[in-house]
Write a structure and sequence with these properties.
The structure holds two protein chains of two kinds.
Chain A: H1 2-22, E1 40-48, E2 59-63, H2 77-85, H3 89-92, E3 97-102, E4 112-119, E5 126-132, E6 139-147, E7 156-161, E8 163-165, E9 199-200, E10 227-233
Antiparallel strand pairs in A: 1-4, 1-10, 2-3, 2-5, 5-6, 6-8, 7-10, 8-9
Chain B: H1 6-18, E1 22-30, E2 36-37, E3 41-45, H2 60-68, H3 72-80, E4 84-87, E5 99-106, E6 112-120, E7 125-133, E8 139-149, E9 196-197, E10 226-232
Antiparallel strand pairs in B: 1-5, 1-10, 2-6, 3-4, 3-6, 6-7, 7-8, 8-9, 8-10
Amino acid sequence: MRFSKSLIILALGVSLAACSDSDNNDVEVKPPVVVTPTSYEFTVTITNLTAAQPFSPVALIAHTEGMLWQIGNSASEALERMAEGGDNSQLLTVDFATHAQSAESPLPPGEQLTLTLTTEQLESLKISLATMLVNTNDAFTGLNAIDVSSLAVNESLSRHSHAYDAGTETNSEAHGTIPGPADSGEGFNESRDDINSVAMHPGVVSQDDGLRSSVLTSQHKFDNPVAQIIITRTQ
Amino acid sequence: MKALPLSMLAASALTSFLGQAAELDIKLTNLTQGLHFTPVLIAAHNSEHKLFNVAMPASTALQTMAEGGNLEPLINEATAASSDMVANPAEGLLAPTSSTMATLTTSDGNNYLSLTAMLLPTNDGFVGLDSWMIPSQAGTYTVYLNAYDAGTEANDERVVEGAGALDVLGIPAAPGGNAGSGASGVTSNENNTMVHIHPGNLGDDDLEAGISDLNNTVHRWLNPVAMLTVTVK
């Protein structure tokens, strides 16, 4: 039923268009169709739920296809740089991102920040974000390709995020390998000496829980979830 | 076909209101970085014939799966209960971060989905889904699964050949090849003998001695340990 009805409407439209074409001597001033560039605005609020894992500057991107990571696939170099050293510059310019925003500074435990993203497209719109847990070798958290195309204005969705492991650096917790304040050690290193596949993070062990060579203490331990993320469409 | 007693006919008429047969595409992903899953059992069942009951003692069938990865007793019980099943879709172990796919056609009344697979290396840990109600609305649903402890064996964390048998204490295998030996054992007690959320592997940093044969930077995990994606057609 619906199909045939729309066919009729389509046919009417075509015949009308044909009429106006052939009658173009009768000057009929049509108001110009004003195409207002529509923009859509989203705020993304991230809360760091951990005890003592600051988050590196959060990278937030809008996209319609692609994923920042996939369990079972090896991490992109952009993801590796963020997960090992907190450097989100390559993630922000990932080729499928249509818009990107970065937090200006790290997000300490127990605090939250809000980023705003404005896009011109709503259809198939997805939001992803990623940030490193900096007192680890290569742990990160975030959201991967959350579809926001059906959110109405002032509607929100809330997610709790897990800790992932980029799989690009062994979780040695050793002195000099952790970029966060617990160690002030090395960030990104291009060698890959772990399983080379993104997984859920097994958690940090720490010197207080049986890893004598660890620079971490019991306060650096974390459990899921590690962050709360609220996405609100504001326009 | 045998004539059904009236009461059963009435029951089947009732269940057809409660839930229709469904066709499911199922994808299971091992989310962990260092644990293997033994052969996976996925069953659609009625409200009574669950694969396991939390906070209840494990059945011998569940214990057999959780301590040694052997699905046979669970399959026999589920067959007797007229459950619909997929057994061992990965055709062996499901390695860390790997996925396996299955399709399952469920019968009327088998409206709940459950799943079990032993976690290696653990003493009696398993990944579990307990009686997830299959949605009647077509769509794709994602469920995260946690690690359970069958409560039938002390988590001593010693890798012992033959420990898959019910009367042998220990972890039967560490398929990643990254466990040690010579551990004295973490504990010889299992205080909670009911099925419960697994407290996690402890491990240690000494692969030749210490209390555990497991590596504390490799064999621990945080929940969830698996992601199940179910497409109801």
